[in-house]
TrEMBL record:
SUPFAM superfamilies: 4Fe-4S ferredoxins, Respiratory nitrate reductase 1 gamma chain. The chain crosses the membrane at residues 124-146, 166-185, 240-261, 273-295, 315-332, 338-358. This is CitB domain protein. Keywords: Membrane, Transmembrane, Transmembrane helix. It comes from the Bacteria. It comes from Pseudogulbenkiania ferrooxidans 2002.
Length: 389
């Protein structure tokens, strides 16, 4: 054991004052340091994709560090299994080191860069302020139809906001979000220099994304959150959130097809496909984010980056408000309050779309890209032969 300690001390370049590369930030240098230690130990190799991917490398350059940081799902299992974790002098904390770099990549690759930096510094404040401001803006627009306020209109929200107006507003915001995310992930993808994305690699990465495979702790028992106890609730709440979001998006897509292809404008019956999908998605986006917020509030500070909590909670707050206001519109669609409820809901949805490229939503996109790179990489020969594929 003493010989192993000496080997790992040397491999890990324990002196942080002399990082391997002067181009690395302090956070990136810390990931490089702990990966050198882990590469010498490899006790956690079976936990998740990070550790076998690590064995394909001896040196950890900036692109490698960004790739591994986004491949990490922050399950926390390796922290509690590590014999070199604090209070050991090596102070190996892979989840925290990866989380700090992962947050940095959201800003580094964001487009335009200034917006990414702004949201990272004050995510919760920006999210709530933007939602409130947009809701107020829509309520001012609503004032132009003051004669309709208080009247039950049978769910006809186009009476308050004409279809073309909504299509223009939301099309512009959503289009910008897709563009910004596309530019960001494209820059990230080019920087990590992947190989050829074959069909089997794409299929495996898609499977891992849809299952949230690496939120099982590598052994099927789940993640660590408040302590060293394993729990599957983080994975379950992510599933509620992910599939709830997809169901809401599907409801919008189906309604768009109804409107443009079938000539069937809203409002739709409660038993229609758009309303059913939206209702299912809305419930999922209540359960999932509420659970994630509960876990976030209880999460041990050693298992993440405390500086990212405003960003995390800002995204969770927008998801919760989107769901709550959407279900409120559905419940009040035949009442005189529908106009105000609708303005509040649409303002929150616009804020959600506008902040997608600059908040926690980005982690799903970057992590999917990292999983695809791993699916490609594991099919290539490991020339170092330091570990199994």
């Amino acid at each position: 054991m003493k010989q192993l300690d000496v080997l790992i001390r040397e491999a890990g370049r324990f002196d942080l004052a002399t990082p391997a590369s002067t181009t690395l930030t302090d956070n990136e240098a810390e990931v490089g340091r702990v990966m050198q230690i882990c590469n010498a130990c490899r006790y956690c190799e079976g936990f998740c994709a990070v550790f076998p991917a690590m064995t394909h490398r001896i040196e950890f350059e900036k692109a490698d560090i960004h790739y591994l940081a986004n491949l990490c799902h922050n399950c926390g299992a390796c922290l509690h299994a590590c014999q070199y974790a604090p209070p050991h002098e090596f102070a190996v904390n892979v989840p925290q080191a990866m989380a700090k770099v992962r947050g940095q990549t959201y800003s580094d690759y964001a487009w335009p860069p200034a917006l990414g930096a702004l949201y990272r510094r004050s995510g919760l404040t920006v999210a709530l302020a933007l939602a409130g401001g947009l809701a107020l803006f829509l309520m001012l627009l609503l004032g132009t139809r003051a004669e309709l306020l208080g009247q039950p209109l049978g769910g006809d929200f186009y009476a308050f906001f004409p279809h073309n107006t909504l299509a223009l507003l939301f099309g512009a915001v959503f289009g910008f979000a897709v563009l910004a995310l596309g530019v960001g992930v494209s820059r990230f993808w080019r920087s990590i220099t992947p190989g050829e994305a074959t069909g089997p690699a794409v299929a495996e990465a898609t499977h891992d994304v849809l299952r949230l495979k690496y939120l099982d702790g590598g052994h099927g028992e789940g993640c660590n959150n408040a302590d060293d106890a394993f729990t599957l609730w983080r994975r379950r709440f992510h599933h509620f959130t992910f599939y709830g979001f997809l169901a809401c998006f599907a409801a919008t897509a189906v309604a768009t097809l109804y409107h443009y292809l079938l000539g069937m404008p809203a409002p739709y019956a409660l038993t229609s496909l758009p309303v059913l999908l939206g209702s299912i998605g809305g419930v999922g986006l209540l359960i999932g984010p509420a659970g994630l917020l509960w876990l976030n509030l209880r999460r041990h500070p050693a298992q993440g980056d405390a500086a990212q909590k405003p960003m995390d909670r800002g995204f969770i707050a927008l998801l919760l408000l989107t769901s709550a206001t959407g279900l409120a519109v559905l419940a009040g669609r035949n009442s005189g309050a529908m106009g105000v409820l609708l303005a509040a809901h649409l303002g929150v949805v616009m804020a959600l779309f506008a902040t997608l490229p600059y908040g926690k939503f980005a982690h799903g996109i970057y992590r999917s890209a990292a999983l695809l790179k791993w699916a490609i990489e594991k099919r290539q020969p490991n020339r170092l032969s330091l570990g199994s594929d």
